[in-house]
Amino acid sequence: MNVIKIANYIRQNASDNYQNIIGALNEDSKITDLSNPLMEYSVIRNEFAQGLINVIGATILNRIATFENPLAKFKKGTIGLGIDTREIARGLTEGKDFEFTTEGIANMFKIYPPEIAECFHRLNRRRYFPITFSEKELKLALNSWDDLTRFIDDQVTILYETNYQEEYELMLELMRASVNSDGVKTIEIDEVVSESTGKRFVNIVKDVAKSFLFRDNTNSPYGRKNPTTKIMPVSKLEDIALITEYTTINKIKVDVLAAAFNKEELAFSVDNVTEVGKGALGFIMDDEDPENVKYYKVDAIVCDKNWFRVLDDDDNEVNGNDLPTIRAYNRYLHVWQTLSTSPFMCVNALVHEVQSTDIPEGYFDNLIGNNETVDNSDQSDDQNGGN
């Protein structure tokens, strides 16, 4: 961490008064070039404390946190204004035979609206993360560059690490809820316990990934619920991701895993594969036959990266207030997000059967909901100005 760069970032975004008192720093600057004026002017010191988290959060800490959400790669851009985001899917049209007839001429005056379905994803995470640090701690941190580095690690980084950890856990919950409630296709496999079962696992992953390259209704939750739909999912190979436990990956050779994505080992991109914790993908229950309920552990999810609809609000920021009676500072990292999945994208779950005793008590009662609603109303309403 380059604390001199951080100090200059703070100065760059500070008031004119701050910039007149605190000069720009370089690699040869001493800590006293920063600390002496901060100790002398309380107003400047308060502005430094304010900027310490604000500027670092916006420019540096999102890239240097020691724990980064491994699922963050699936997040999208900011969502802007509003609490709902709209996703629209359009179906294929239908080919017609050429007819050089009166009826064929009449066909040009007909209308052929495509099948359209839309999905709304709701902003459903509104959190803030508070932290307090004292003026005394800040002054002690200004004794040396090393002390300031430790102070930033101890007092500031923790805000972002806490958010990353919570975001990771919520994205896991999102996947578990989606697989249970959205009609995701499941494929039963042997539990991966050895290199041989690992190879069979990879072969199935390869088959699933290849199936995503061809339009198939059953590969999307929407298509499975609407078997006659013309909204047929298809993915690009580079957009197909495998999410599985690290214990599964440990039993598979890299070259075998790379082959599932048609890549040689040296060219294999880990971006295609994401490891999560043991048991992180949860369980599903098949209760279609009440007399013969079955339970499965989810070993992996193969999906289009666009299946995730996780969006940060562009107003996420750090706010704060000073506590002069105890000479301390409160800072609050605000994080608003939309966490959802798309019903229109390719996704399959690989599972193996387990016993009911393997399921944690209350597991299915505690799953979060997936905040998306789908509208596939008759397109004729749109032609007449309906919603």
Describe it for me?
This protein is α+β, with helices and mostly antiparallel strands and 387 residues long. The protein folds into two domains: 1-64, no CATH class; 69-387, phage-related protein like fold, CATH 3.90.1690. The chain has 14 helices and twelve strands. The strands form two sheets. Strands 1, 2, 8, 9, 10 and 12 form a six-stranded antiparallel beta sheet that branches. The protein is elongated.
Helices and strands in order:
Blueprint: H1 3-12, H2 16-21, H3 32-40, H4 42-59, H5 61-64, E1 84-90, H6 102-106, E2 116-134, H7 135-141, H8 145-155, H9 157-181, E3 185-188, H10 195-211, H11 221-225, E4 240-245, H12 246-249, H13 254-259, E5 273-276, E6 283-286, E7 294-304, E8 308-312, E9 317-323, E10 328-341, E11 347-354, E12 372-375, H14 379-383
Parallel strand pairs: 3-11, 4-5
Antiparallel strand pairs: 1-2, 2-10, 2-12, 4-7, 6-7, 7-11, 8-10, 9-10
Helix pairs in contact: 1-4, 3-4, 7-8
